[in-house]
Amino acid sequence: xxxxxxxxxxxxxxxxxxxxxxxxxxxxxxxxxxxxxxxxxxxxxxxxxxxxxxxxxxxxxxxxxxxxxxxxxxxxxxxxxxxxxxxxxxxxxxxxxxxxxxxxxxxxxxxxxxxxxxxxxxxxxxxxxxxxxxxxxxxxxxxxxxxxxxxxxxxxxxxxxxxxxxxxxxxxxxxxxxxxxxxxxxxxxxxxxxxxxxxxxxxxxxxxxxxxxxxxxxxxxxxxxxxxxxxxxxxxxxxxxxxxxxxxxxxxxxxxxxxxxxxxxxxxxxxxxxxxxxxxxxxxxxxxxxxxxxxxxxxxxxxxxxxxxxxxxxxxxxxxxxxxxxxxxxxxxxxxxxxxxxxxxxxxxxxxxxxxxxxxxxxxxxxxxxxxxxxxxxxxxxxxxxxx
Length: 388
Ligand SMILES: NC(=O)c1ccc[n+]([C@@H]2O[C@H](COP(=O)([O-])OP(=O)(O)OC[C@H]3O[C@@H](n4cnc5c(N)ncnc54)[C@H](O)[C@@H]3O)[C@@H](O)[C@H]2O)c1
Ligand SMILES: [Fe+2]
What we know:
Layout: E1 12-15, H1 23-26, E2 36-40, H2 43-46, H3 50-60, E3 64-68, H4 77-87, E4 94-99, H5 101-113, H6 120-123, E5 125-126, E6 136-140, E7 152-157, E8 162-167, E9 175-178, H7 188-207, H8 213-227, H9 230-235, H10 240-260, H11 264-276, H12 280-309, H13 319-336, H14 353-361, H15 364-367, H16 376-384
Parallel strand pairs: 1-9, 2-3, 2-4, 4-6, 5-8, 6-9
Antiparallel strand pairs: 7-8
The structure holds nicotinamide-adenine-dinucleotide and fe (ii) ion.
């Protein structure tokens, strides 16, 4: 375990059912004069009505509000640049992102583009952003990426068929509003995939080479909350308690990964998203049991602690048995949550595996966190297990 570790998060977090109904007072924590606001969202989220409620409250306060719905799921660099062109003529005092990780990441990047003389391509990597952005308010509608509390934003580079991260403290928002009511209508497949993404953040943070006491606390509590609610949230989406546990659990996952980082599951998931458009959470769910088995001999002790947090009865069994039960439970969830387990469903062929493996091997930022190093051949073997 590292002896030096750090943790940084959003400036303010307001959490609770119906918290966005009073957004106009929550914005005062920003301490800035607000005349014009841009809300960034997507059509399917705008249709739910929450965005109009936010807009109406701000208009009531005399604030000029624009809404942009053009950010695409898992946005490319070009998509974010196009939206920036549309909105850059006006000076906004605050950007409010209402959506899943795609919208939240795009909102963070738009805020940076507005105050920096830098293109997105100049920002790819760690600590390359020069100035803080326009103040941001992030309101997640999936549970989820945890993007609302991470210093990360992910963009897809279609030319290289890869997803790349921007990491900077300037991507942390000024205010987060967690309102589980926004997730009540989340469709089943998105509940499943985004929930498993959140679980993967916590599991990977807990077994990361950079795991530390702060990240462990968030990771274990996240695992506890998600394990006790993911199946219920999927099967009975209108259960607000389950939705709230998922939302808080996914935020804790974001906090854990901010300090400890994700590892090989995410590294291998990125090329599947970049080249085959496999949703981020689905790619992670597919890979999680296989990468965990690969890492098993190095992380048995840590997995046995995860087993306890998952509510698995570990009394009278060995650490190895408990660790194996974690993998079994994850596989059971992926069946119950009806998450695809075969890469062929997304058009992946045996002949694609070499190129996918080369792409994954370049995600060294995350592979370096993995408790075991992976050779190109080992990466390819893991992908092959997903081609039934
Ligand atoms: N910044 C980070 O720390 C971080 C971490 C993990 C993943 N990510 C990135 O986040 C993106 C994925 O985000 P995501 O998994 O939240 O999915 P998403 O934001 O792409 O949303 C998936 C779909 O669900 C819809 N949707 C969202 N909320 C809804 C709701 N409440 N009701 C109905 N429909 C809704 C969206 O419009 C979209 O079509 C990827 O680009 C991934 O790489 C970022
Ligand atoms: Fe993720």
